[in-house]
Amino acid sequence: MSTTTTDPAVPGSGGFSPGSSRPVTGRGGARTLAVTSGKGGVGKTFVTANLAAALALRGQKVLVLDADLGLANLDVVLNLHPKLTLHDVFTEKATLEQAILPAPCGFSVLLAGSGMVEYSRLTPDVRDKLLHILELVKPRFDWVLLDTGAGISDVVLFSISMAADVLVVATPEPTSLTDAYATIKVLATQQGRREVGLLVNQANRVGEGKLICGQLQQVLQRFVGSQPGHPFKLELMGEVKSDQTVRQAVLKRQLVLEHYPGSDAAQAIKALANKLLAQGQGL
Ligand SMILES: Nc1ncnc2c1ncn2[C@@H]1O[C@H](COP(=O)(O)OP(=O)(O)OP(=O)(O)O)[C@@H](O)[C@H]1O
Ligand SMILES: [Mg+2]
Questions:
Q1: pLDDT at position 150
Q2: Is 250 in the pocket of ligand 1 (CB under 6 A)?
Q3: Is 19 domain-assigned?
């Protein structure tokens, strides 16, 4: 298994130092983006899968890693019935090549399988295996998107720490915002991140994302961004309105990008992909 070079001074550059939850330096290859949230059920898997499709439609080679180990549901959203998963790679019953599957719109997925109690705790073994897999896939793709679990458990924080950049998904509900704040605060204090992306999902009106981002940024600035020369930046990466087509697509296990390309939600996800592409390196 490969080792990573610890460089906590480079937040947002991928990797993990065992024993801490600080991101460490990776070795090039794909841009890695963790899609996470404080509260569960806010739309992480919907955003990750459709963002992957939008990037693939722009000619990018994209892998989605189902990093919600144990409670994975990317396969459900994509209507895939994998015979081989990350678990089989971990236990050496399958090779990485066998477990990486094609998804609609031309991106690839590495699914985790559901109900694996052994992955609800972060053991050194799981940590090493995940890092090893990431190092193997990074040179082969332009993007690796990690669909993580919700909250601030050590498993979730570890999967986030493997990514150079983080996109926090939140809805305008007060409970979602409180939990998003808690997550972002931990990312700033434990992982040393000075820049985190925010996607406001299920917005009720245009401009709600900007308002929410401004409010969160204000509180965060007060509590985590006060060191001179190290301002904390929460960047609004997108706003997806509450859209009936998303519910329909999820129920039918389809991608909004593929089946409702003209919908507000599809347009908003395309705008997110364009913004990420325009940013070049790093959020
Ligand atoms: N923009 C939207 N408009 C309407 N409904 C939405 C939107 N985004 C998500 N949803 C609804 O929210 C549900 C949950 O979405 P999703 O499974 O992506 O959340 P999640 O954050 O991945 O959940 P978990 O924390 O359980 O992994 C979807 O099934 C869909 O019905
Ligand atoms: Mg999910």
A1: 95
A2: yes
A3: no
Mean pLDDT computed over every residue of the chain: 87
Helices 174-190 and 154-161 meet at what angle, rounded to 10? 60
Please give the distance of CA 135 from its chain centroid, rounded to a whole number.
Answer: 17
Q: Is the pLDDT of residue 4 over 80?
A: no
Instruction: Give me the mean pLDDT over the 166-193 stretch.
Output: 96
CA angle 190, 51, 175 (to 5 degrees): 50
The CATH number covering residue 97 comes to: 3.40.50.300
pTM for the model:
0.89
Structural domain contains residue 68: yes
pLDDT grade for 115, boundaries at 50, 70 and 90: low
Note whether residue 69 is domain-resident. yes
pLDDT of residue 228: 67
**Selection from 221, 228, 269 nearest residue 50 by Cα:** 269
All residues at 6 or more sequence positions from 13 whose CB lies less than 8 Å from its CB, including other chains:
7, 23, 24, 25, 26, 164
Q: How confident is the model at residue 21 (pLDDT cuts 50, 70, 90)?
A: very low
68 lines ligand 1 (CB under 6 A): yes
What is the pLDDT confidence band of residue 25, given thresholds at 50, 70 and 90? very low
What is the distance of C-alpha 96 from the center of its chain?
A: 20
Residue 143's DSSP bridge partners are 31, 62
Q: Which ligand is nearest to the CA of 180?
A: 1
Q: How far apart are the first and last CA of the chain?
A: 29
Range of the domain at 147: 31-274
Please report the atom of ligand 1 found closest to the CA of residue 265. 1
Structural domain includes residue 14: no
Evaluate: CB of 111 within 6 angstroms of ligand 1.
no
Please state the domain count of the chain.
1
- Across residues 113-127, what is the average pLDDT? 76
- The set of residues, in sequence order, having a beta carbon less than 8 Å from that of 65 and lying 6+ positions away, is 86, 109, 110, 133, 134, 137, 144, 145, 146, 147
